[in-house]
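Objective 1.3, modelling of assemblies. Example input:
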Amino acid sequence: MQKDPIGTKHSCGNCESRSQSLFCSLKKQDIDFIDQNKFQTRQKAGQYLFYAGNPGTGIYCVTSGTVKLEALDENGKSHIVQIFKDGSLIGYRALFSDEPYQSSAIVVEDAEICFIPKTTIMDLISKTPDLAMKFLMQLSNDFRQMEQRLKRVSSHSAAERIAEALLFLRENFHDKNWTRKEIAEWASTTPETVIRTLAELEKEGLIEQKGRSIKIVNRQKLLEKSKITF
Amino acid sequence: MQKDPIGTKHSCGNCESRSQSLFCSLKKQDIDFIDQNKFQTRQKAGQYLFYAGNPGTGIYCVTSGTVKLEALDENGKSHIVQIFKDGSLIGYRALFSDEPYQSSAIVVEDAEICFIPKTTIMDLISKTPDLAMKFLMQLSNDFRQMEQRLKRVSSHSAAERIAEALLFLRENFHDKNWTRKEIAEWASTTPETVIRTLAELEKEGLIEQKGRSIKIVNRQKLLEKSKITF
DNA sequence: CGTGTTATTGAAGTGTATCAAATTGCGTGG
DNA sequence: CCACGCAATTTGATACACTTCAATAACACG
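Predicted structure (tokens):
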């Protein structure tokens, strides 16, 4: 993994993305401790943070940009398992289960990443037990989402999953134009099916396609089609 | 939820299932604390521990028997999300994410269940911070399995998932004869497909069916067919 | 001993993947 | 900044794995 160190080290103290993360409640001295031990890098789209099979050596904190967790199946087809934006923590699950990463982390949009070594995290947890609870809460939420995805994949049609994907991706990553291939990898289907379904949705007036960009015209109808219940 | 209290309260101190759970390293005084606050019940097959939508009020500890986590989709079809045997903890995820249960817990084989209230767990965690880490490790492992299931459902054929299911169910629940319907609900397919696939596997000499019981004859070949990689 | 669930088999339909080929659009380097 | 090249997109044809529906048989259970 190659990293481009950033000259001027930002401080976690005034990192906006922190406000959304589980580090937000840390005391100043703990923030300083992280500051002293973290590694800050800029990563261009396409770069790997880590590969499936690697052991977990720390936590990747997304300050800006977008990162995807990708897994290859036996046929070489790739699946997007999770997507992270600014404020997200990546790779902390492997830290606690002491298993190698299940998937690879790939930068989707140029990103600033802070890497915090495992020892630093563990030190911090032993000093501030409250942090373990924060991780528990975070992991519980991630788990809930994973469980929901499992249910959806096993009971929703491709069209429903694609509708879901459109909503989810727009909701969480406003600006990015995801490719048909990426949408397919997230919705567990093929680019062809995505394209045909998008054409269908456009005919029904739920979305509009201009080149590669997709605009959601009728969010309500799309929601119904996706069968997501909030 | 109806419970049949057990007259003679067992002590967690000599509960065999504890050796496999994250409570195994607790000090005597903490075990005693749990003993004083837990509720022990016997549950018959078919009974519900909790329903999807219920708020999480504590942890269910399986002392003996088998419990499944079941979810209904929009079409009324049920899916088995997780299966628990003795030594398993159920419902702790909802405790930390403070969301209602996603699924219902149903006893599959007559079970002895200990219920430990949320407040007791939280008290314990605040006293012994190490316990939070234990929960983290447990949840991380459960998460890993959930992630793997997601990948399998999205990339494996029904036959592959059924082969997986046979191995998994036999591995973890030696004695139980799961119904074709249950196998289907675990493998995200239909009873008919399970039956046809079982006939296929029998013809290939990988399994033998005697009435409702299924015997794995060629575990190695079944493993290859399941595409599980260890 | 009946009664409802589970198992089985068959026929039919269809959603979705797959393959191939043409076209578009974008990023990159000259 | 333009042109090139390659990846993304699109469309059509085909195949088939799997679901669905229906009807019967076998079993378990109270």
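The domain at 12-145 of chain B is CATH 2.60.120.10 (Jelly Rolls).
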